[in-house]
Design a protein that fits this description.
The protein is mainly alpha-helical. The protein has helices spanning 3-28, 36-44, 48-64, 66-73, 80-104, 109-141, 144-174, 182-199, 220-225, 227-233, 235-253, 256-265, 270-296, 299-320, 329-353, 359-369, 372-387, 389-408.
Length: 411
């Protein structure tokens, strides 16, 4: 392949991934997991435990099923069709949530809430199916350095799209013309449309075949039995799984900051858009920092900084709660930093340490063994219901300190 053709292929790949990142970010701002989604659920129930269950499904289901998906997908040379199927299913889950919210949200909140367990499950399981395919396609089309740089670049464009989405959310939720439940139904419908548009970028990619090894008696049980062997032989991978589990404490607490603000300050829905915009500002500004670090250092350095931020944010929440709702903007700027940093750091580092012929297995094993992200939102909601926000926030800080110490330990 000559240099001109190679450069053209890279341009197409970059355009496809950036196109998807742009419209996916615009879409996800319509159901932002740290502002819009917590606020919507709080309209349906005051139980932090139930919200924790929904959030666990949202984050945990893709991971729990990852080892099943990875076993199934590893026998296919081409995975683009599975990526597209996952995106389309996720899109329809937006439409389902929009319909039930509009039709039953005001008069039958419990019915709407129960339906969310179905739609959020579909939203999450399709994300897991698509996520492994997405990571595998990126890993086999771009080398390590180009991947890390692309993660940072697409994060920048995605942040810009999310910024536009934040203004749309601010307009929808501050307008007297769009009261509950119409406001949430509009945002979810936009998400439905946006995901379809996002998928179009992948139609341009000419996917190279994956390396497929045919193993006799390669059953799912034999596949599971091989997991302990992989973990025993690869110390870096084993430590990465432990660190990511501990780092999940910072992810667990993120959506509760919005509920915390509503409980402490008794704010109205106009703050949903305001906090979301400043969260996105933090994401955009931090991208310049992550791009610099990605070029000068590596993805592991980004992970270290994210973990430190994850430990500082809960303390900042406690301090800022004494000053008023407008000062809480600072917290959401910091949340923007950690959200973008995790995207640029964790998955690229995993792709760096995973052998090419076992990449799909590593993605699946890591996802399924990242069990803390499944149970922590439920525990977080339970802790907050029983002993309050402050103790839970401090617990998160201690968990992040532990993760940072472990990450810095020699392999």
């Amino acid at each position: 392949m000559n240099n001109t053709t190679e450069q053209q292929n890279y341009k197409i790949l970059y355009f496809s991934f950036i196109w998807h990142a742009f419209f996916l970010a615009l879409t996800m701002s319509m159901l932002d997991l740290n502002t819009v989604f917590p606020s919507l659920v709080s309209e349906l129930t005051k139980s932090k435990f139930i919200f924790g269950m929904l959030y666990s499904i949202m984050l945990g289901v893709p991971l729990v099923f990852n080892i099943i998906f990875s076993h199934y997908l590893k026998s296919f040379k081409y995975k683009k069709k599975f990526l597209l199927i996952g995106i389309y299913l996720r899109s329809f889950s937006f439409l389902g949530m929009a319909f039930f919210t509009y039709k039953f949200g005001a008069l039958h909140p419990n019915l709407t809430l129960y339906s969310f367990f179905i739609w959020v499950f579909l939203f999450s399981i399709s994300a897991g199916f698509a996520g492994i395919s997405y990571a595998d396609i990126m890993a086999k089309t771009l080398d390590s350095k180009r991947r890390t740089e692309l993660y940072a670049v697409k994060q920048f464009f995605g942040s810009f799209a999310a910024f536009l989405g934040g203004f749309a959310i601010s307009k929808i939720f501050s307008s007297s013309s769009y009261g509950y439940p119409l406001n949430y139904s509009i945002s979810l419908t936009i998400g439905f449309i946006g995901l379809f548009i996002a998928s179009l970028g992948f139609l341009l990619i000419k996917e190279p075949p994956s390396e497929v090894k045919h193993i006799e008696n390669d059953t799912f049980i034999s596949y599971l039995k091989n997991v302990p062997k992989i973990l025993k032989e690869d110390k870096r991978f084993r430590k990465f799984i432990i660190v990511e589990n501990l780092a999940s404490f910072s992810i667990m607490i993120l959506p509760f900051y919005m509920i915390f603000a509503k409980d402490i300050f008794n704010i109205d829905n106009s703050y949903i858009g305001k906090y979301l915009i400043f969260q996105i500002i933090g994401t955009i500004f931090s991208n310049f920092i992550w791009v610099f670090i990605a070029k000068k250092f590596n993805s592991k350095t980004i992970i270290k900084i994210c973990i430190m931020l994850g430990g500082l944010i809960p303390i900042a929440a406690i301090l800022l709660s004494k000053l008023g709702p407008d000062y809480f903007i600072i917290l959401f700027i910091l949340i923007g930093f950690i959200i973008s940093g995790r995207r640029v750091g964790f998955e690229p580092y995993l792709l760096d340490i995973a052998p090419s012929d076992k990449r799909t297995e590593y993605l699946g094993i890591n996802g399924t063994l990242n069990i803390f992200i499944v149970i922590l939102p439920i525990l977080g909601g339970t802790f907050i219901d029983l002993i309050g926000y402050y103790f839970t926030f401090i617990m998160v800080t201690f968990a992040m300190i532990t993760a940072l110490v472990l990450l810095n330990a020699k392999d």
